[in-house]
Amino acid sequence: MYAEGVPEAADVEPEATADDPEAADVEPEATAHDPEAADVEPEAAAHGPEAADVDSKATAEDSEAAAELSEAVDIEFNPPDDGSERATVRSDPADMLRKTSLRAALVVVALALVGSLDGGRFASLSGALVRRVAAQQDEAGSPRRLSQLTILQINDVYSTVPINDVGGLARVATLKQRVSAQNHPVILALAGDFLSPSVASTVFKGEQMIATLNAAGLDYATLGNHEFDFGIDVLKQRMSESKFTWVVSNVLDAKGKTIGPAVPYVVRQIGPLKIGIIGLCITTSTIAPAWKDQFRFTPAADAAAQYLPMLKRAGADAVVALTHLTFAEDRQLAAAFPQIDVIVGGHEHYPLTATESHTLISKAGSDARFVARIDLLRTSGPRGVLERFFELVPMTNAIPSDPATAAVADSFETRLGTELDTVVGTSTVPLDATDRRLVGETALGNLVADALRDDVNADVGLSNAGGARGSRVYPAGPLTRRTLLSIHPFGNVTCKVAVSGRVLLEALNHGVSKLPGGAGQFPQISGVTMHVDTNAPSGARVTDVKVNGAPLDLQKTYTVALPDYVMQGGDGYSMFPGQKVLVDAQSGDLVVTALEKYIAKKGTVSPAIEGRVVIPR
Questions:
Q1: Does the global pTM surpass 0.70?
Q2: Residue spans in the chain of domains classed CATH 3.60.21.10
Q3: Please, are residues 295 and 228 in contact by the beta-carbon 8 Å criterion?
Q4: Mean pLDDT lowest for which of 103-107, 150-154, 475-479?
Q5: CA–CA separation, 343 vs 267, rounded Å?
Q6: What is the CATH number of domain 22-54+138-413?
Q7: CATH architecture of residue range(s) 417-614
Q8: pLDDT mean across residues, the chain
Q9: Are strands 75-78 and 86-89 parallel, antiparallel or unpaired?
Q10: What's the whole-number mean pLDDT along residues 566-587?
């Protein structure tokens, strides 16, 4: 019986599984009524009232920064004649300073997504604006000040330290401490994807994330697709190291048992609110095929239908779904289960906030560049409702790092050692690892595909675009091992298969099937050129295919270099499993090793967009 997913709840039965009928017998009195369960963690409040100080007035310097910010980007939504939303540009600094928290969120999101400012300038400008807005929201008597519980949300966090001076789990720790110091019950929740991928995770397999999240005071997490990257044994080890609770409602091990110490739901009294939490993970082809057989997956909607009634029977008056699903799946979940008050979601790497029916859906971007703050207030009386207040808080240098958390993060950075800083070669051009790679040919994609093809001497190189990471443009200049690991951190292996021209064409068509939408399956290719008609039916979009300059022969056999992830059917490449394998995952080089060898051999690389994938716009 799962009444409380915290270690002190003695009535949790470790042997119970999600399939155990007894797990459904939850009585309200079985939940944790220990008054201590409602207390904010002592260590979170021990930082004293000074941690809660928020500038109540913008300084003259802040005012100047905010004015400059409004000139840099000022977004307002105005409905045009057709009733749709559009963004228009304004340039009124005085008006900017009077806008609400939503205004602040729009501005800082725009800055982050446009990327027009360097990290330090972004931190200075957005920090000034957010300090003014936060002070207004926390005035005595403001609705948010009366709220009964604050949820701080992060998701898709791959770095423990700031990137370009934005993000960093030590700043997240400080934010939690500040909210706690205001005598405000607070929980910090992570909506999946943090054990991998990253440079550090290639070495530590997620150990650095658990240690730093423990220090930061994380309370709850659920699985994302990248928690499966190292297999079930590593996942269980990371779970055993966690001081926070893993809430996993729709994934079991292959025997139908819960994974390690994970619980399928939580009901917890926090102050005047009794909060219920379920955790739902994506179950699609984004999960590494090599490890998928170690787990048993249940559709998110089925798990929600099983556990949500238990939360209500246990007396939960605020229901939270901690999810790692696509935005479309979150909306479907909210539409099907209006009893969910808040979906704290992940998977998308950009901030999203929406309502579907009654439910607030929030996603906070990636790498803790932002923390979504969601305040809950249950109004009294027969017509009482759960009010929700939202703010997107940028993690800039306006928020100092918690020293204890920073020390843990820095210790792992130091342990990576100087070896990762060895220069392998030089690129004369920037390498774009942004989401542009998911919708078209890129110089970086061509470099990776060329390296795969060269490593195993294949006719064709094919790399799924989602395999390249970093979410940034790597500048021209020296390429270190650290940079290459950042670009390709998954530990995938270079393989080689023999396929017919017909299978190759099927693979290329699958790769572009989601255009114009971006997808990790988009094929970055070498040795091949093709034209793509996005208006044609899926499966018939690719034409004029040439392999090394010659027209594709559907009956001919071609050799294809590809990551083992794709060879095993990852990202939906279902045509590759069962093909003749010439270099298997036990024999091939790591993709990052193939990339390093290729660059080292060349010394200097100058990849370019060459028209390998032509998509008329």
A1: no
A2: 22-54+138-413
A3: yes
A4: 103-107
A5: 16
A6: 3.60.21.10
A7: Alpha-Beta Complex (3.90)
A8: 81
A9: antiparallel
A10: 92
